[in-house]
Amino acid sequence: MTDKSAPDTSPILPDQQVLAELVGQILDEASGQGASAAEAGVSMEAGLSATVRLGEVETLEYHRDRGLGVTVYFGQRKGSASTSDLDPKAVRETVRAACDIARYTSEDSCAGLADAALLATDIPDLDLYHPWSLDAESAIELARECEDTARSFDNRIDNSEGASVSSHQGLRMYGNSLGFVGGYPSTRHSLSCAVLARLEDQMQRDYWYTVSRVPDDLEPAAEVGRKAAERTVRRLGGRRLSTRQVPVVFAAELASSLFGHLVGAVRGASLYRRSSFLLDHLGKEVFRPFVRVDEQPHRKRALGSAPFDNEGVATRDRDLIRDGVLQGYVLDSYSARKLGMQTTGNAGGVHNLTVEPGSHDLAGLLRQMGTGLLVTELMGQGINMVTGDYSRGAAGFWVEGGEIQYPVEEITVAGNLKDMFAQLAEVGSDVDRRGNIHTGSVLLESMTVAGE
Prior knowledge:
Layout lengths: L15 H17 L4 E17 L2 E19 L2 E7 L4 H17 L31 H16 L5 E20 L4 E19 L2 E11 L8 H13 L10 E7 L1 H14 L2 H5 L20 E3 L22 E5 L2 E2 L6 H6 L14 E3 L6 H8 L2 E8 L9 E12 L2 E14 H6 L1 E4 L9 E2 L3 E9 L2
Parallel strand pairs: 7-12, 11-16
Antiparallel strand pairs: 1-2, 1-4, 2-3, 4-5, 5-6, 7-17, 8-9, 8-11, 9-10, 12-13, 13-14, 14-17, 15-17
Helix pairs in contact: 3-4
């Protein structure tokens, strides 16, 4: 449920023990209704967000959400149900719904809880909870400062999509009938801005944002507005290119999407369905030997950190790519069993996937590239994960002599992900940590740029 009115004065999040007891009640109810095994998750979240557009408050929203999900097993028949009502009667009805589903589903030899030996026994404090004492007036003031800075940056900026401030905190608890119960609170705060600029009959839009678990680690509001404006104005006067084969640099905030495709290709579901361009690549070279991609789930304060995954399996540091070679897959318990393997603690996704940076920043990568394309925006979803074929609309800057010459637009960058990975020539030192995949800009030796 979402409350858009002013918040009440009760504590924002309950004590962890309250949710742990609720999880225990759900599991007891499942057992009482005949389930041979069960798992349950309960979450409570609260937050504040404000958006200012053209100096006026456009939205102000307080929200409080809560919910539970339960999965039951009757042997190897599985059923799941969820609700946002935590009343005892609703809990019983939700468990009953899950049990009714399980009784009528087919048996699946891979269904079941995670292996007990893999469940987390030591839950480290990853310093993920940093609430922000932000009231509505302060949020509006920050958003207004951010947008005002952007709008006053250049007289060619004549419109705005607004600036937004958001503060969120949540508590999630998971437990299963193997005796595991664990949870932890977390926070996430952000500030963003997007503006539009005009030059004669051409209009351009760009944005910037900052996000962190710790409010003091956010970029200042004026800096976010300045970057949004600067990025927008520099795109004015964009040109098209003729079709050509050239080296390409993906800016850091876009490079993470390339490694997101890597994760998608080695995810268990893609592999057991045989719908991945990296099928049967375990132990094979995917990148050049200098490339290392590792997972760091216990990094303090990071956005992707977690002491255990969505099944209670302990997370751990590991290499996904070492010396350019694929070291492992991204598996939960079900996909691992389908593949005859063991879960990698990735139910729910990867945790702080980190691409080892090189020694050059973005400017250094452009100098190394010499002549080519810097991509700063991608559009569309032209990716075939079965074949690896890649084709997306793009915008950015043409580079000659290692220096940006002019903005380009209305082009397409195309290739094959397997070839693109093999042609990754360097990773920049300008690491973007604003998400779950941390990487600097990347230089690819050759891609097709389609234009006029």
